[in-house]
Amino acid sequence: MSTGHSSADAEAAARLVSFGMRPKLLPGRDVVYGELVRRYGEDSAFKQLTHAVAAGLGLMVLEVSTQAGAVLAATDESIFEIKMDTYARQSKIRERRDTEKVLHGLIHLATAALGYPRPDDLANDTYIGRVSVEQVDGVVREACRILDERAGGNKDPLADAPELEQAWRAYARRPAAAATKDGRLASDTTRGMVARALRFLSEHGFLVQVSGEQGGTYRTTPRYQVQVRELAADAAFDELLTLGVVSVPGGEGSLRATASDTL
Amino acid sequence: MAGLGDPDEGLARRLKALACTAPLHDLDARKAKLDWADATVYQMAEIGLHTIDQVTIAMDFDTGADHQQVVNRLLPFIAAQAPGRGAGEHTRVARWVLDNLINVGTTDRGFRRVYGSVDADGRYRRRAFDFKLLVELAAPDGEVYLRATDEAINVLVGALDTDVESAQIAAEVKLENLITRGRLADAKLAAEQARYRTVQYGETLRARLDATRRDVRSVDWEREVPELLDSALSHIESRFRAETAILKNITAARDEAEDPGHKRRAAELVEIVGDCIRRHTQLQSRLQAAGAVFRAEQDRQQFSGPPQRAAIDVFGQLLTPTLELPLADAVAPTQAFFHAATGIAVPALPSLPSLVSLLLRPAPEREQLVGEVPEPELAPAEVTDSYSDEQWRLADELLDLPEVPRRLSGLLAEARETDAGVARLVALRALHAYGPEVGAAIRQGERRVLLAFDDGTMLDDPEFGGADLLLMSAGVDGRDGTETEEVA
């Protein structure tokens, strides 16, 4: 194949990228999309062109497959970027912004951790995880409880250095649920925040709601797996690596079904 | 936590115990400020303690009390304190006390007390003790119910030298409470505990089955689960026998009892035991189905292929380490993950048809909007004085021009000899004087006001631009409302 691209090729590549911007559309449901995904896999020049079109828009192509469709990620400062500041904006002003951001981030981490309990699940393309609001909150609270037991000495945080308080403490202190006047779940409780995160992810095509049980039960989509595996996990891992706090990987994964003797 | 053995620990413990009583004292301290009623007649701390009592008593082993139930049970006690007041006010007082014990309105719905302790290096450190008295939890059906915390139960006892965070002491107090409530309480307690145990077995089993559905290999079906099934079955067996006996005896006692109080209690117990038996039956049927779930999942999952690539263990390598980080450090990794895991946001394009329909849509009903109204906490302003008193005094001297108007350029030059800041202040005040608020000056009873006039001369200055204003002080005569202006 020659290196020259026709304008029809460019249009097709741009169309593939634009399909990727509709996260709920799947190649299996759309003939044109399916055809473009197939072409991406077979035609390396077209693949290059698609990457170039995406790069020009400020996007990265993480993967293009029949299951997940075209999975895109925003580069830094791209107009497609989702900023934590925007996401956490609805929080109350009086709370320290960092605490709020960390709590939201932890909830997203816990969602991925519960969706893919073992490294194998993240690696296995056919794996579909299940998460629910109750479980996500439960997993983090259980982890907090274990960390609390592990902490020795005087465990109370220093009063004059709130930023040195450990993240689990801030999570454990936040109420799980609170009644509002109209009987809905208060949005600044952890369950409210988890419900929001799961709803947000399902709006972006990363989760699909299965039922309303346990505060909302969802299953993961291949798209979420690609996103977590190819980008998010590494990004967070790199940050932790620079802080020097990560352990050596094992093959088993460390999330366990917990014994509830400690209720 | 224990084991340091220093004398300081006892002190810290007593300080914490003391802190737990603070919210109760606070109720009485604040009752005078309530604007909806003259609440000084109510003994708020008593009502507070009574509220905690009510919640503790209503606390079954697996659920707690509902807000409305607690309020209802408080009403007779409150009414006894102020019989002359209306039922509406009593309800409001009950709500107020309940809300304050939960501490509604704060983000964490809890209390914080700062106390000091000497750490291992002998330094005095201030630490924050976070505690809650009543907590709200979500039941499986989504309802929110109340439970008293260990701290609250320990405060109730009144013994200050106890470890207020100890769940064990709290359990003992709870137990004692239950026993002193009547002769039948023992049987009731046993039945309740058995029910709790049954719920726990059911929960453990459910967690194991869920994990099995995700991945057969994550659960030990060779030893752990069979053991669990065995012990659950023997639990059910022993309880079935005991409870059938209780049911028979107590039903007889209920029918024969003369004293209405005893009759009622026996009836309660019969109900609990009946519920226990129902739950046991439920658990038993689930135990019988467990094996089938395992076999079905094994069949389904053996077709999934082996792992293709190494990936990160999200829980062990990302979540747990991040939870252990101080808040300030945890921002970067959580943000990095969030940023990458949430994908892309496609900017919304406004379209005229949807904009029009959006604008024409009737305003939504207000009731649907009412959520919790956040109380803004206003931080005290930073020091806003850009200029010192000394600079203001110098500027005042320069701008006191009762006789002859002067040009701004001259004033600036003079001001700059002393301080560049004074020059800036003079320029700002000259600008302000270009539109003087004479009315305001009269209201404030000032004798004179500074006026500025632009005669078209340009200002030639290294720092400021604009017109070289003529400045002059004019006397203000507030009595007849006329001003004598003497501007050139």
Describe the structure.
- The complex is a heterodimer of chains A (263) and B (488).
- Chain A is mainly α.
- Chain A has helices at 7-20, 31-42, 44-57, 84-87, 97-115, 119-123, 133-150, 167-173, 190-203, 222-243, and strands at residues 59-65, 69-74, 130-132, 207-211, 217-220.
- Chain A has 2 domains: 7-74, no CATH class; 84-247, no CATH class.
- Helix content of chain A is 49%, strand content 10%.
- In chain A, helix 1 (7-20) packs across helix 3, helix 5 crosses helix 7 (133-150) and helix 5 packs across helix 9.
- In chain A, 48% of the residues are buried.
- The model of chain A has no long low-confidence stretch (mean pLDDT 83).
- Chain B has 488 residues and is mainly α.
- In chain B, the strands form 3 sheets. Chain B has a 3-stranded antiparallel β-sheet. A two-stranded antiparallel ribbon of chain B has the order 1-2. In chain B, strands 3-4 form a two-stranded antiparallel sheet.
- In chain B, a hairpin with a 5-residue loop joins strand 1 (111-118) and strand 2.
- Classes of the chains: A mainly alpha (263), B mainly alpha (488).
- At the A-B interface, strand 2, helix 5, helix 6, helix 7 and helix 8 of A face strand 1, strand 2, strand 3, helix 7 and helix 10 of B.
How many separate structural domains of chain A?
Answer: 2
What's the structural domain tally of chain B?
Answer: 3
How large is the count of helical segments of chain B?
A: 16
Strand order in space, largest sheet of chain B: 5-7-6
**Major β-sheet annotation of chain A:** 3 strands, antiparallel
- Overall pLDDT score of chain A: 83
Q: End-to-end span of chain B in angstroms?
A: 82 Å
